[in-house]
What does this fold into?
Amino acid sequence: MFLYRQFKTQAEIDAEYNLGALLADPQVVFDGYSALSAAARAALKCELGVRYGATLDEKLDVFPAAAPGAPILLFIHGGYWRAFSQREFSLVASGFVPHGITVVLSNYSLCPKVSISEITRQNRALITWLREHGPRFNGDPDNIWVMGHSAGAQQAAMLLSTDWRGEYGLPRDVIKGGFAISGVYDLEPLRHSYLQPVLQLDYDLIRRQSPIHNIPTWAPPLQLHVGKAESKEFIRQARDYQRAWQAAGLKSNLYVRPGVDHFSIILDLAKAGSAYSARIRTAMGMSDRRGKSAKPVKA
It folds into this structure.
């Protein structure tokens, strides 16, 4: 009997999805994130802990561009929906604010305090908040982009699947494009993993919150990124999700980045001169075009 695809036991699934177990010392990695993020906050103008929703957890950190009318890049952090905050990922601002982009980092409630559905609701509420308040931070509310890493990639994908016009009364293209990095797009394997006691997944939640089961009929362009050194399941999930987008006639590219794993893949985002951050800025319509860190691959 198979629990999921070819996996018969929880141990087999955990070997693919227990990311911390793949590191010699996870704390060293997370301390590195924190150090880069502290440096970003020290170097760049920022406003921290801005309330965007009703609950105390619905806060954001914003790094405004120097001039008005800047594109807005919303970054949603990972942590398997149960760990971290926006504060550990200020590092992302270093790669984009110097190039005239306003960067917003989302905080949200964590499991098991809330369900993944509530996390999605909160991040959707943040998009509506940015439409009204973006200009306060030199951002253009008609030029919003979303990026997420790990669990944040699932969230970014769910934002791209949202019916903004039908459910929120916003333009259907309120989000101009998305960047999903090292995400889980089918939540089913996690129901059989060490994460289940915290995530409390059931059939209905998996269907409603798995991006691969919520492919939109229309969406802006999506870039999927995954590290070549990640587990086979993370690479497969990215490939399967891109295939689903292509089958729906939607525009997407998949980049398998050599030399990086699940944790190191975002480090180049902290470098204003990196080819990786330049690729994303180019997709956003910014002027600099500094080379490529990976080639798009066919599904």
Observations:
- The two ends are 29 Å apart (CA to CA).
- The chain has a mean pLDDT of 95.
